[in-house]
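Incident log, structure service

09:12 report received: a user says their structure output differs between two submissions of the same chain.
09:20 pulled the input from the user's history:
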Amino acid sequence: MLTWLKSSRDRRQVARSLYGSSVTAARAHNFYAQWGVPDTVQGRFEMVALHVALVLRRLDQEGAAGRRLGLALTEAFVADMDDTMREMTFGDLAVPREIKRATAALFDRHTAYLAALAVPTDMSLRAALEIQLAYLVPGGHLDGGRLADYVHKCASALDAQPAAQILAGEIAWPGPAGSGPLGSLR
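09:34 re-ran on a clean worker, output below:
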């Protein structure tokens, strides 16, 4: 019984590392300064959701251990959203409803990006990104092509990383074009 408790605690710690790495990657300056993603709460949420969705995609490839870690990663996402919404002075009664919306949005993005990455053409991913992010940039100044290229680079980089590294909570994200690699983030 204590072994299960320890492994569960370790899994949560690894998931927090993966989540922290995803948040760090999502904060890259290029997304907001050059690629048209608004530097707003919603824009940052979308970039975090994108990176978490990419990690969930990679974890899905690792069988039961990956799925358990993916669940823990989702729990880390939910905990962070809960903390963030409370800090933003959402009323206590509104937080659960907003958490439900944020979690549903994460899974919508995960499903859309997973389907788009399964299609060999870049246009599918670009269209998925533009659909998911259209509400952020009504003027249409989002650089969907560069963002799609970046997502492909991330998916390839994650696929190339050893399972042991990913399951240990270490991710080497490629940096957005013009920023250099983000390196190994843990």
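09:41 both user submissions now match this output. Likely a transient worker issue. Closing.
09:42 reviewer note: Residues 15 and 73 are 5 Å apart (CA to CA). The mean pLDDT is 87.
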